[in-house]
Amino acid sequence: MASISLKYKSKQGSLTAPGDVDPGAMIPIATTTLSTATATVTFSNIPQSYEHLQIRGISASTASQAILIRCNNDATNIYYNHELVGDGSNASANSRTPRTGAVIMPQGMSATANIFAGLVVDILDYTNTNKYKTIRSLSGNDLNGSGYVWFNSSAFPSTSAVTQIDLVNNGSTFVQYSSFALYGIKRAGA
Amino acid sequence: MPLPSTMTPIATNTLTSATATVTFSNIPQNYTDLVLVTNTYLSTSSQSGNITYNGDTGTNYSVTFLGGNGSSASSSRSSTRANLPLDLGYGYSSSNFGVYNVHIQNYANTTTYKTMISRGGEAGIGTNATVGLWRSTSAITSITCGTSGGNYVAGSTFTLYGIKAAS
């Protein structure tokens, strides 16, 4: 059987081929799984060919500190944040403005054997140079007797395209086996 | 070799008759995360849908819940329980199916317990987000959607997706 080399149905990709195969709209960009405790996880040189970004992962920290996202290495006090949180007893809404990063988990989970928080973060229209960037997240941790579930919405008030994302453990470190995967979401026709 | 898509539908089950349980078995282990998307309605009042992994019905699950019912927001917790909740329970009407997205992160690793985060809702009842824990380091090879009593009605759908991260 003849082999056929393939290319993406988009301008991204370096292969050329006689036929096109569409790999879908969600493209894996990079993954980091920590082998040691680390304070910051960086995704740099993010391709500018997608419409949105998504980060999916599991996370635990050495201390219960906030987990932030910083765009383009900007750590100034400019990020707007709002959250809706359930702590197992009460639901509450908070505003944490301004902060030095977009809050995706107001309280990073202190390391408990084998237990990691889950998170899904969307960074919408990240290449658009006409608007500020919106970051929203769904995250949570349950420790069989304690835990939180959060909705967060944040703004990076810059019209710059996002080329770098730092996941920052604000005052502690991510523990071994914490894992973060970055995906690009393609626009129609890309 | 064909390039695989990142978010791949693994299986879909659309019920043609009332059914108490739907099981996805022999789940491939080559993805990073699973996403279970359900659109369901229960046949019996005061009942609710639930999820178990690998046939484990022991009290190895726990959840923290955040919800809104149109009047107020609330949060609750249920620990050391025999399953994870899938939905808000019996729906408002038989035409009003609930919709839920359940994210099961790093389901195939054998180092960590398994955390799921979900969001969904049923018009006429409410909307919610849930985080759930299965206290097992086993890789997830099957998922069973069950009920606390009664059946999922015909027309209920369950789709399982695999998401593959960059290696």
Keywords:
heterodimer; A: about 190 residues; mainly beta; eight-stranded antiparallel beta sheet; four-stranded antiparallel beta sheet; 14 strands; B: about 170 residues; 12 strands; about 50% strand; globular
What does this structure look like?
The complex is a heterodimer of chains A (190) and B (167). Chain A has no helices and 14 strands. In chain A, the strands form three sheets. An eight-stranded antiparallel sheet of chain A has the order 3-14-5-10-11-12-7-8, with no helix packed on it. A four-stranded antiparallel sheet of chain A has the order 4-13-6-9, with no helix packed on it. The N terminus of chain A is likely disordered. Chain A is mainly beta and 190 residues long. Chain A starts with 5 loop residues before the first strand and ends in a 5-residue tail after the last strand. Helices cover 0% and strands 48% of the residues of chain B. In chain B, strands 1-12-3-8-9-10-5-6 form an eight-stranded antiparallel sheet, with no helix packed on it. Chain B is mainly beta and 167 residues long. Classes of the chains: A mainly beta (190), B mainly beta (167). Chains A and B meet through β3, β5, β7, β8 and β10 of A and β5, β6, β9 and β10 of B.
